[in-house]
Amino acid sequence: MFMYVARRLLTAVFILFGASFLIYLLTAASGDPLAELRTLQSANKEALIQQRIDALNLDTPAPLRYFIWLGGVLGCFTGKCDFGSNLAGTPVTQLLSNAIYQTLILVVAATILSILIGVSLGIISALRQYSGLDYTVTFASFLFFSLPSFWIAVLLKEFLAIGFNDFLKNPQVTIPTTLLISLVAGLFWYAASYGKQKTRILLAVFGFVLTAGLIIFVSATEWLLNPFLGIPFMLVLGVLAAVVFTILVSGLRNRRALIAGLAMVVVGLIVYFPIQNLLDQATFLMIVIISVVFIVLGIIAGLLAGGYDKGQGARVGALTGFVMALLIFADRFMQSWGDYITNPRIKGRPIPTANASTPNLNGDFWISGLDTFTHILLPTIALTLISLASYSRYSRASMLEIMNQDYIRTARAKGVSERAVVMKHAFRNALIPLATIIAMDFGAIIGGAAITERIFSFKGMGSLFLDSLAHTDPNPVMGVFLVTGIMALVFNLIADLLYSVLDPRVRVKA
Amino acid sequence: MAKSRISSILSLTAIAALGLTACASNGSSNNSSGSSDNKDKSVSVALTNVFSSLNTDTASGNSDTNGIIAQLTTRGFYTITDTFDVRHNDWFGSYNMTEDGDGIKVDYKVNEGQKWSDGNDIDKADLLLAWAAESGYFNGEGENGVSYFDFAGETQGLGQAGKPTLGEDGRSITFNYPQQFADWEIAYNISVPAHVVAQQAGMDEAKLAETLENAEPGKENSDLRKIADAWNTGFDTTTKPSDESLLVGNGPYKVTDIVENQSVTLTANENYQGDNKPKVNEIVFKTMADPSAQVQAIQNGDVDMVAPQASIDTVSQLQGVDGVTTKTQPDQSYDHVDLNMVEGSPFADENVRKAFLLTIPRQDIVNKLIKPMESDASVLNSQLYVLSDKENYDKSVENNTSSEYPSDNMDENISKAKELLGGKTPTVRILYNNKNANRVNSYQMIKESAEKAGFKVEDKGTEDWSEQLPTGKDGAYDASIFGWVSSGVGNSALGQIFKTGASSNFTSYSNATVDAAADDIMKTTDQSKIEQLKQSADAELFKDAYGLPLFQSVAVASYNDAITGVKPKPGQQPLTWNAEEWDIAS
Predict the structure, then answer these.
(1) Which residues contact B64 (CB under 8 A, 6 or more apart)?
(2) Cβ atoms B199, B245 nearer than 8 A
(3) Is B313 on the interface with A (CB under 8 A)?
(4) Are the beta carbons of A28 and A65 closer than 8 angstroms?
(5) Could A43 and B153 be called an inter-chain contact, meaning their C-beta atoms sit closer than 8 Å?
(6) What pTM was computed for the model?
(7) For A29, which residue in chain B has the nearest alpha carbon?
(8) Which of A286, A347, A364 minimises the CB distance to B23?
(9) Are A91 and A479 in contact (CB under 8 A)?
(10) What is the pLDDT of residue B6?
């Protein structure tokens, strides 16, 4: 094992050398760093060209220039790191640190969301293969996958930012519009449901009524201007969470687990009022601690609830507790929403089309949290939609393969409940090939999302790479390459190791 | 049993809640989010590039964004207006030129009581520092000479004046140019505050002035080195500097916040001594690289002003936005066709040149590429003037023979060209940027039309066109289509492009009249003589069938209707050059 890792790391070093040389030459050959200066007519043209030649060592051939750059980078081992600076004289290290931060803000949420949603959709559509649901999911995910990201971004801005902000001036949905939207929703429910015709029609009616009800409720209470959850919604959503988690983790027959989940709902509701004063002075650390406390309380609740499998109770309790904490935070964010949109910096148009934050907002934790939320909302939706397909397709294929395995038939034959077959025997094994994909995708996060970043004016790794390449500015390009290259190699290694850990049939041989 | 469990859960919760108060934010419950006053007038402007330095005069800090910020935070002896006139800032100081023997003498005097925003006087040290940077006086000769200030501008003009004399009052400076100098009016201006540079260099302002007065040019001097280093890199910052003195200026606005790569906030400078006190209290610049992102941002009200790179899409979208005024005008850059007159090229023969120029469908090109953006766009008819030169452009067009190349009746042109060619079918290789849609379209239209007259056109389009330009001397191509960016002020272009053997003369063009005009123009201060020289050169260029200008690109700027006093201008600082005159109608 150790030898294996050592050998992989050693090859990684050589790969980095080779790849960086190649990238350097490609960058140098990608354009003319003097192009923008050559067409100037101003008197200082010659001086500007000479200064740029000096700054980039353009009088040295590119293959030799690489070694100048390499010398600076290898200086890291002697304590004198020099990644160079860009044409504007900003050190590459500073460019990178800011770009990595922006990229993480932008991409992490989208990656987690697309994994969660994509994998669940894939599993569900595999379980109902060739049903209306399966076809709907397949069609939708391929549709999103094939949309160009710049186009989807422009559409999102047009409808969810500009359109939504205009709508907020008078957030009333007319009755024909309500009916139309509800009809479409009903049709979607019909298409996505499975089973007998009668069930599907009933579900479609249910979807129609639910959507219409929601729209009427939101219009009547001007919920979009003054959103709230309050005790009633938290109760409904909490109980729903407790039931769903119980079904998934242990099956509803384990009443103790359900009780643990419901207990956490009660805890959440009891804490709701006393905790409000504390939340007014929230910090990020406090939010983390409160979430952890809720999870721990959930585990305790599960253990106290007892029953034949305390572990299952603890899991249901922990998950429900976490959801309750999230609901409390969501409710608190909603309480600040009114202040946020009436802020003179926001001027009643909360969803922006670009940039990472509103300058000079000066709000507390909740206001600045909402500000980050509104800014990452559109890019997150765009990135999630685009990457849904790969996860849902992989997990669907993997799940289908597993469901046809002999041990699944054996489990069914010995009378294991369908829930246990799916959740315990199939789902877990289906995740193994996904684990490697996810590990590599996390490695790729840091590379950013070039086009999405550019269109939403996030200055992350992707746009740093693009902008620098456009100016044939090699140092930042090489900086981005080094970071992404190292991440890719490391996460590749992790993926391989993870595989052998997860699947005992695969062994790493030294 | 169950009861005790529930109560234990509750008590645990209570303890946890108690513990959490320890990690509460120490700020009082400041729920009234946003400290800014409703009455405050704020304008936000989209910028394409990120901010990187508070000193825009250095080689690395010389970007459009830095220039926009600097123009609002620092004001000196003059301002370039939307019509490219040099407007003297009389409130700041005065400067005038007197003839002195063969040369000229320019006296600069800062008005009494002019102060930087931190109260420091604008005086001798500031004048000296600006001179030291802008003249290159202290730099040594040749490749290995010492080099101090990395000034991004041209140093030869001010450099020839040598060491200036300082006035008794401690706030005036005089330059003696040994010969007449056309661009004296824009050769010198105030740069960054000297007392801040001195502080960065670890000395006081008096020491800085003394060093600049006494240091010997071309020699290594440790104090001067410190000053130059502070001037070169001390103002580079992408975040709000911890040292607030770097933000000192004397313009209508001062920098109050910088969010790395995202935004720069300027607030009105209450100590601004200029004539127009700013009425808009705050200007927020937001970085948006993508033109379509800028369009949607102004549509959504994220920004109040945009000036993205113009394309047919961008302009038509901006024109469709409600509540926004969109103005298009000719930009300072213009496309043109140059013919390579080097020996061996078919264009060494003047008749072939004339024939080819006749086949260029200039009006069609303008109709297709520019008219959709700006309905009253027209063909450019001068090699040395652009439309913003107004009556001088008109005069020059009258004088030159551009009318020999009309383009409204191409059939007639083609038959004329056939006549000139006399049955020859020369092969011409055209260099252009094949990644630029406008150039590709121009090329296609020129090719089609030229082939009708019997030319054989060979496609030399490449991404590396700018690197290929100088290879014209070796006959690597016969014609080129590309753009020049006119600087709007100054007269150096003539000598740079059209003089025999000049650095940007890629076509081996040589004409004694033009050469003489290029030399003479820099040695006179008489504006009418300058124009006369330029116009004579322009006429020669057309007479020699040097090439043809095609069109000026379009500059587009849009701003919220509520903002008054906005005068978009082409070139640098397209929107903000007169920000102190803006107001918001309430």
Answers:
(1) B47, B48, B49, B572
(2) yes
(3) no
(4) yes
(5) yes
(6) 0.88
(7) B464
(8) A286
(9) no
(10) 54
